[in-house]
Design a protein that fits this description.
The protein has 140 residues and is α+β, with helices and mostly antiparallel strands. It has a domain at 2-91: Deoxyribonuclease I, Chain A, CATH 3.60.10.10. It has helices at residues 2-9, 30-41, 113-122, 125-139, and strands at 15-19, 45-46, 61-65, 71-77, 86-91. It has a three-stranded antiparallel beta sheet with strand order 1-3-2, with no helix packed on it. Strands 4-5 form a two-stranded antiparallel sheet. A hairpin with an 8-residue loop joins strand 4 and strand 5.
Length: 140
Amino acid sequence: MDTYSQALTFGKDIIIAGDLNCDLLKPRSPEAIALLDFCSSVNFTQMIKQPTRLTSSTLINVIMTSNAKLVSKRGVAKINISDDYLVYATLKLKVLKPPPKYIISRSYKRYDPVSFTDELERIPWNETMSITLMNISSKC
C-alpha cells in the first residue's frame, strides 16, 4: 500500500501482472472475494476475463491496472508450453517529445573580409580603451 500511495502521489498509472493462484472464475470463493475487494478498494480493473490454465480452466493469471484506458488490447494466448496460458496486454503509451533546441547562428553568406577589416581599422580604439580603463579605475 505504501508503494501504491506513492505512485498515486506522483500521478503514475499502476499495472500488476502475475499468477496469483486465486481463481477469479469462482467469484464466491474467499480468495476471489478478497482479491476483488482489494481491486475495488484501490480502484483497479482486472483485465483478463477468460481461463488462463489449461488443465483446470481457472483464471489465476491476472493483469490489473489503475487506468483501464491505458490498455488497448488484452487477452490470453493459448500457447501449450506449460500448464498456464500466456496473458498479455498492449498499452497505449505516448513517446515524450524532447524539448526543442534553439540554435543561434550567424550567416556568413554576405561576409566580405576586406570590408570587415576596413571597419575594424576605422574604429577609434584608443578612445574605446581609455573609456574602458576609466570605468575600471572608478570601480576600484
